[in-house]
Specification:
Blueprint: H1 2-13, H2 15-24, H3 26-47, H4 52-72, H5 91-111, H6 117-143, E1 148-150, E2 157-159, E3 183-184, E4 188-189, E5 192-210, E6 222-227, E7 234-239, E8 245-261, E9 264-265, E10 268-277
Antiparallel strand pairs: 1-10, 2-5, 3-10, 4-9, 5-8, 5-10, 6-7, 6-8
Length: 278
């Protein structure tokens, strides 16, 4: 028990981080902070891009800056990126490469200490305050067994006829909001995607994620409908202009079934999230 509390004091006081930063010196610390700042900005910008090739170009720069920061901090240098022709890679491989480099850059930035002595002192105080807040949060969660979250995740889905795999009904509620598409129907009259939430909820928010590999506006116009009995559907909204994420909020919308549909053509989306309280 004594060893446990000794370790807790070490974490909460950030003594090890203080020792690392003190060993840098002001000039080295400033160089590390600047390289990390630029790398983080490029990493954030890459995550906002739908085009994986453009994202990978930004990530290459972010990775070089992260490596520079790590080297200045005396950490092991990152290995060089393998040379590949991005134009020759299929979309799935571009996405996999993008995910890998994002994780690598994020891990390098997170493990390279660059906080100033003043920031570390503030964090020490903040962490002790966080313990108090954490205790309050635990007490709140115990006394409040319901919260707003995505109640569509993993729920049953029915659709008009789909293309061959990788399109599957479950792909629209699997939690993955980025990639080619989670689901794509065949071109037909009145295509639809319906999620059964398995009981009626007071819905607060619905987020619909467009496909990520192009042809973004071919699904327009797209209608959103809800139902409490699975037979009679209430029209909620129609989207007619380009979107990456269609985000709708509600004060009081009761529904068990959530459906997106259109008059003709096909539907291709990455994910549908429905937020409500348990």
């Amino acid at each position: 028990m004594r060893a446990f509390f000794a370790g807790l004091r070490e974490v909460m006081s950030l003594r090890e981080a203080h020792a690392v930063v003190d060993g840098y010196g002001p000039a080295t610390l400033a160089a590390i902070r600047e390289a990390k700042r630029k790398a983080s900005a490029r990493l954030r910008a890459s995550r906002r891009l739908s085009n994986p090739r453009a994202a990978l170009e930004l990530l290459a720069t972010a990775r070089a800056l992260a490596a520079k920061a790590a080297s200045a901090a005396g950490r092991e240098e990152l290995p060089a990126l393998d040379e590949v022709d991005l134009d020759a890679l299929p979309f799935a491989e571009l996405e996999a490469r993008r995910d890998r480099i994002e994780l690598e850059v994020g891990a390098t930035l997170a493990s390279t200490e660059s906080r100033s002595p003043t920031e570390l002192r503030g964090l020490t105080i903040g962490r002790y305050a966080a313990i108090v807040l954490a205790v309050c949060a635990v007490l709140w969660s115990v006394s409040t067994p319901w919260r707003i979250h995505d109640v569509a995740l993993g729920k049953p889905v029915t659709t008009s006829p789909l293309l061959a795999p990788p399109a599957t009904p479950e792909g629209i509620v699997d939690g993955r909001t980025r990639g080619t598409f989670g689901l794509q129907t065949m071109k037909t009259r009145a295509p639809f995607v319906t999620i059964d939430l398995q009981r009626t909820y007071r819905i607060r928010r619905i987020k619909i994620y467009n496909r990520g590999d192009g042809w973004f506006d071919e699904i327009l116009p797209l209608s959103l409908e809800v139902s409490t009995d699975g037979i009679t559907f209430q029209h909620v909204a129609t989207r007619t202009d380009h979107f990456a994420v269609w985000d709708l909020r509600f004060d009081a919308l009761d529904a068990r079934w959530v459906r997106v549909s259109k008059d003709n053509g096909y539907i291709a989306l990455n994910e549908i999230e429905v937020y409500a309280r348990d």
